[in-house]
């Protein structure tokens, strides 16, 4: 079995007397694409906050490549190889597409506050920025203001900024939210391409996307993982259908968000 690059062990999070995450265990092997699904209020966003350092667990551990990262600030977790793209697009709308990506590249090299740089380093930063532009197919939009891109274009830009740190683990929080069918198809193909060989943890309400993209799926209900399996196994799991997918099971039915 492939070694896990991300491990959650007995993870818990309480806010006062209310326990939101109630003992989550999850192993994400290197290179696997895993979706986390569940009804609203299941704790998916809280779980992502715990992994990415925006919240500190009440109990339990988060390990990245065997090293504990729970309690570390997001910047340090990012430097260790985990990057997160948020549910709400997180770009600089008044800067150009190129400038947004270049800032992300500079940040990944610890250069965001360096005003004097050798010419060779400037050239290297530009070349890396150009590679990322091409990777997400935005080279024709390099000089456009980021805020003027289409919605899917903005998510592509954010994905490029996520890739700037060359992460081994990527967390994507509802990347298809608010997209048209065409935009969803484009973004799905792009995510599949750019996450090849990387571990991906995905929260997404569009079940067509989940079943098309994920190698395995974990189902979170009331802060606990009630099932993990392949898309086919999750479709066939009676407990999952009752808790989330809906009964009677209908392959063509829409899943409640």
UniProtKB/TrEMBL annotation:
A molecular-function term among this protein's GO annotations: ATP binding
Gene3D superfamilies according to UniProt: P-loop containing nucleotide triphosphate hydrolases
UniProt-listed InterPro entries: AAA+_ATPase (IPR003593), ABC_AA/LPS_Transport (IPR051120), ABC_transporter-like_ATP-bd (IPR003439), BCA_ABC_TP_C (IPR032823), P-loop_NTPase (IPR027417)
A GO CC annotation given for this chain: plasma membrane
CDD domains listed in its UniProt record: ABC_Mj1267_LivG_branched
PROSITE patterns tied to this protein: ABC_TRANSPORTER_2
Keyword Iron: no
Keyword ATP-binding: yes
Keyword annotations: ATP-binding, Cell membrane, Membrane, Nucleotide-binding, Transport
ABC transporter domain boundaries: 6-247
PANTHER family: ABC TRANSPORTER ATP-BINDING PROTEIN, CONSERVED COMPONENT OF ABC TRANSPORTER FOR NATURAL AMINO ACIDS-RELATED
Protein name stated in the entry: ABC transporter ATP-binding protein
Organism, as annotated: Aquincola agrisoli
